[in-house]
Amino acid sequence: MLTILYTISGSSAQPAVVALLGLGEAGSAIAADLVAAGAAVRGWDPAGPDAPEGMQVAAGDQEAVRGADAVLSVNSASVAVAAAESVAPALPAGAVYADLNTGAPGLKRAVAKALAASGARFADVALLGPVPGHGLRTPALVSGPGAEPFVQLFGGMGMPATVVGSEPGDAAARKLTRSVFAKGLAAAVGESLEAAERLGCADWLHDELERTLVQADGALLDRLIDGSRRHSARRAEEMAAAVAMLVKLGVEPRVAAASQAWLRSLPGNEAPR
């Protein structure tokens, strides 16, 4: 990765100082890559996990962020606002405060509000993949007043980050629309495999699903979108049969029932009488 020998302001030829709030699996992986890229990294975690080699462990969160060019909050959505409120008095004016936790757009706006008086620039960062194994190279969407300087700094260190909006929450909203698909797909896979296990054909279905995913392309997406609209009535009846079968097998049809209801809600479709 490219070594960064300047601060965000570019006013001195010194390594950028980056503070990490949260040193769990994701935070530690990012911290290790930042050290390798040449940044001066300070970290703090109330649980006190082992720190990556080359990172300075701070005695507290305010000590970690004091004098930092950028702060990465990598803890959890449940404490995101509290973490920002706690360090706000110690944040340098003009520093980038990036919240990397997965949360709703409203939560990101609440974090930005908690930082308003500090003069720090807030960046809503939505990570689009698992951090373990990718670290700083995890693709990200970024929005908010701190988005441009965030991409300038961390893009230079190897992070594929893209600015998607000027408002806090813009990046989070995009990620969550993607999550509806990704997590919904996982739920559908789980429900269908549970039924297949009870029918004694789990291996066959696993191979069938794998084949479908390996061969997936843009044409498949078009068929899912357009085909569902054109054939919603027939497909709703098909899912009604699937729901009935799952109930008989003792599998709760959470995804199947939701699919049936969605198909029946499409324009031009009417529930069977």
Describe the structure in your own words.
By secondary structure, this protein is of the alpha/beta class. The protein folds into two domains: 17-167, Rossmann fold (3-Layer(aba) Sandwich), CATH 3.40.50.720; 175-265, N-(1-d-carboxylethyl)-l-norvaline Dehydrogenase, domain 2 (Orthogonal Bundle). 48% of the residues lie in helices and 13% in strands. An eight-stranded mixed β-sheet has the order 3-2-1-4-5-6-7-8, sandwiched between helices. β1 (17-21), α1 (25-37) and β2 form a beta-alpha-beta unit.
CATH class of the largest domain: Alpha Beta
Number of helical elements: 10
Terminal Cα span: 63 Å
Strand content: 5-15%
Number of strands: 8
Structural class: alpha/beta
Identify the quaternary structure here: single chain
Domain count: the total is 2
Rounded mean pLDDT score: 93
- N to C succession of SSEs: EHEEHEHEHEEHEHHHHH
Stated plainly, the CATH topology of the largest domain is called Rossmann fold
| Rg, Å, rounded | 23 Å
Biggest sheet character: 8 strands, mixed
> Spans of 5+ residues with little confidence (pLDDT < 50)?
1-5
Shape: elongated
Topology:
Layout: E1 17-21, H1 25-37, E2 40-44, E3 56-57, H2 61-65, E4 70-73, H3 80-87, E5 96-99, H4 105-115, E6 121-127, E7 140-143, H5 147-155, E8 161-165, H6 170-199, H7 202-214, H8 218-230, H9 232-249, H10 254-265
Parallel strand pairs: 1-2, 1-4, 2-3, 4-5, 5-6, 7-8
Antiparallel strand pairs: 6-7
Helix pairs in contact: 3-4, 6-7, 9-10
